[in-house]
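Second attempt. The first submission of GRAM domain-containing protein had a stray character pasted in from the spreadsheet, which I only caught after the job came back as garbage. Lesson logged: always re-copy from the clean sequence file. Corrected sequence (198 aa) follows.
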Amino acid sequence: MSAMVLENFNGTPFANGVVFKIAGKVDRKKNMMIRYEKKADNFVHGIREHVRLGPKISETVKGKLSLGARILQLGGVKRVFKQIFGVGEGEKLLKASQCYLSTTAGPTAGLLFISTQRVAFCSERPIKFSSNGELVRFHYKVSILLRKVKRVDPSENVKNPSQKYMKIVTVDNFDFWFMGFLNYQKSFNCLQQALSQS
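This time the job returned cleanly.
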């Protein structure tokens, strides 16, 4: 049985091991493309889920534009967090995620902030409320110190497991449901890490 000799384009034989190196590079590139494809699919799904929870696509777009303008105006997400909630000594913002908070009026779009001392939420757009015949507008805000969080429960829709929810239960047994994350897993992991370090 004769050995097969591979040749390159100019007719000279390949050096020993070159074929394996090329095959290894192709496999690495293929695996990298598969990982990026999965990340892109997850991101697109997150956007679809986030938009689906909004009342109308036009309202969702208005809210995103308003939020983006506000973030730019203040000079970044950290400054938005600082202006809305104030920052305690040594407190650092770890992550800000766009999501929805479940309220009695339905899902409310906003930003979930995870810091070294608390988890906080602020609605994208002001909520209208009638008080003494006057129409009052205010942002819906929630701020929970990490030491007051009893647990964080991951949850998903039984009929559609790609719809993921995060339930935060406080020590005084209040629960807050967050949903429609652009990247659920990163937000959940960040919150878990913040809780373990507090």
